Amino acid sequence: MPRIRYAPFLRAVVAISLYLALIAVRAAELPGSVEQALARAGIPVADTAIWVQGVDARQPGLAINAQRPMNPASVMKLVTAFAALEHFGPAYSWTTRISTFGHVEGGILHGDLHLTGGGDPVLSYERLWKLLRRVRALGIEHVRGDIVMDGSALRLPQHDPFAFDGRGLRPYNSGPHGLLVHFNTLQFFLEPASAAEAPVGFMSTPPIHGLSIDNRIVTGSGPCGVWHRNLDTSVESTPTGPRLVLLGHLPASCGPRTWSAAPLSPEQFGAAIVAALWSEVGGTYTGSVRPGTTPADATVVLTDASPALAEVLREMNKWSSNVIARQLLATLGATDLASHDMMRSGAAVAAAQLEAAGIDTRGLVIENGSGLSRIERIRADTLGGLLLTAWRRPFMPEFIAALPLAGVDGTAHQRLGRSPAQGQAHIKTGTINHVRAMAGYVLDRKGRRHAVVMMVNHPRAAESQAAQDALLEWIWAAN
Fold first, then answer.
1. Which residues pair with 450 in a beta bridge?
2. Which of 154, 279, 402, 468 minimizes the number of CB atoms within 10 Å of its CB?
3. Residue 430: beta bridge partners?
4. Spans of all domains in the chain
């Protein structure tokens, strides 16, 4: 029998052990530029979680507090996006139906016209206008009955838009709905005058029925700055219906700006838009535009499919749309036909999708899938595992393309400035009070791609952008 030489074997084992120990030390060492930026911001490393790994590597090259569950803010949308792609696939779409209940004679529908939502997150007023024009083209001019808005596709708990931060008229606080119209958002085009205190020019879109708008915004002086902080809205009750009041000042130096508000609930807003658009295309009705359900024996006359899920994810992640994220989570929950709370069941489905993909979900807390939450939590290594898993999935191109490109577009268009790493990172960012986070992919200068996660939970978290950018630059420089 051959004689076994134990000494070389033991030396090899020791060498491997030392190598692994060195890797472990390296994985706990914070890059100097990141450490210095955190120190300048007054943020302890203990309140920061970081995870970095090459997409073709077997273990992370950097891991700091990676097993600590932290609030990710809008970075939670990556979980919602991954779960939706995993469950439905990138080509999935939502369908909105128009049905009649009654007969049509001489251009008159003797009965009700039903709009039945399918949970479409991006049913814009432009698409709805085209759909109602098609109804007119079918020969229906007058509805001798009601126009019924059916949002029953999503069974949802009561949503309080003021619960998160008291700013219930801000679009980011809007809740989901089975027949969501135009993101539940009213847009304003503002143009300051040349003289201080003069009224600001104003136009709103989409057209809306039953809501009056009182524009009290005046032209201000000085630098533009963060101009939208000087603006506010309120809703007043009047004998003729609700009135939206626009308040504040817009510096002349800002030039034309676009602003928005969510003055009504999704149910009220959708009805007000449909009433205005039906009139705009030349239609009339005898009854009212009201919520309701579509009878099982109603006749479907038109359908409209949404853009594919991959396109919806671009809208959600590029511009961090909370209402789209809520709609996606509820759509996941709708797969549980017995659920009476599709947000809660959607959170369970999303977590199950991650677990089925082999992603560690310990410490994961999903409330609404948007990150606009005080209780949502996820570990940095969980996000890292999600990014690596997504990289190996067939939908990888769609997943990455939906992320803002740092220094180029979306919510990250102002990141990295003149850094050589500008344009080399696809990252989802997230910010709420005491939270600043990012996660995504970085292409280094040698052409290798890395998954990166950084979350800061600290009262001074808003000042951690420089540290996050330093981490992206460190990765780009190939460490």
1. 54, 442
2. 279
3. 437
4. 27-91+310-476, 94-164+266-306, 186-261
